[in-house]
Amino acid sequence: MNRLLVLARHGQSEWNLKNLFTGWKDPGLTELGIEEARNAGRRLKEMGVQFDIAFTSDLSRAQATCKLILEEIGQPNLKTIASQALNERDYGDLSGLNKDDARARWGEEQVHIWRRSYDVPPPGGESLKDTVARVLPYYIREILPRVMRGERVLVAAHGNSLRALVMVLDGLTSETIPSLELATGIPLVYDLNDDTTVASKKVLEG
């Protein structure tokens, strides 16, 4: 693989476990989340993957996942760049609320719209469209040029910030991207063509 880009959603967080909207709040990983991150590193090691640089968000669950992956592949001191641009979608007033409590307060349909529409933000927060508008310029400016130069890049981030990248890489639309789910701790391994399109994609499950 000459133009390697690996995307990894963080392992299970304490708030994932409690069914809470997390967003820019900063809970740590659960024991399962730590193991998911380590397993992601082991699967990448089995492929013989090594990286030249890593990117992550400003949030500790993504940073811890990145660190654990790099430890497993034997690159614990790899240069890693953290940026708020890769943070999870900001859920605004929903942050910290149990999803069932939010449905009881605002109704099942309204919460579903906030969670699964492309361009309707929750109160005080970001829509997926807003998240895409934040993540993509950073990807185009900071990450993609490195991949195109032949650097092998790891991005450890969040379900929604990574969906923004997958939307572009996989050619998804505003209609199809909201239904995409990215599992915790499962790396997506991309090899890019010289025109930035995808030559191959592997999902490292199991």
Automatic annotation (TrEMBL):
PANTHER family registered for this protein in UniProt: PHOSPHOGLYCERATE MUTASE
Active site residues of this protein: 10 (tele-phosphohistidine intermediate), 88 (proton donor/acceptor)
HAMAP family in the cross-refs: PGAM_GpmA (MF_01039)
Record key words, sorted: Gluconeogenesis, Glycolysis, Isomerase
Family recorded in the similarity comment: Belongs to the phosphoglycerate mutase family. BPG-dependent PGAM subfamily.
Native organism: Microvirga lotononidis
Function: Catalyzes the interconversion of 2-phosphoglycerate and 3-phosphoglycerate.
Record-listed substrate binding positions: 9-16, 22-23, 61, 88-91, 99, 115-116, 159-160
Name this protein carries in UniProt: 2,3-bisphosphoglycerate-dependent phosphoglycerate mutase
Gene Ontology MF terms in the entry: phosphoglycerate mutase activity
PROSITE patterns listed in its UniProt record: PG_MUTASE
Summary of subunit composition and partner proteins: Homodimer.
Pfam name, any one: His_Phos_1
Annotated positions for site Transition state stabilizer: 158
Gene3D superfamilies membership: Phosphoglycerate mutase-like
Functional pathway: Carbohydrate degradation; glycolysis; pyruvate from D-glyceraldehyde 3-phosphate: step 3/5
GO biological process assignments: gluconeogenesis; glycolytic process
EC number: 5.4.2.11
InterPro entries for this protein: His_Pase_superF_clade-1, His_PPase_superfam, PG/BPGM_mutase_AS, Phosphogly_mut1
Domain of life of the organism encoding this protein: Bacteria
Transmembrane domains' residue ranges: none
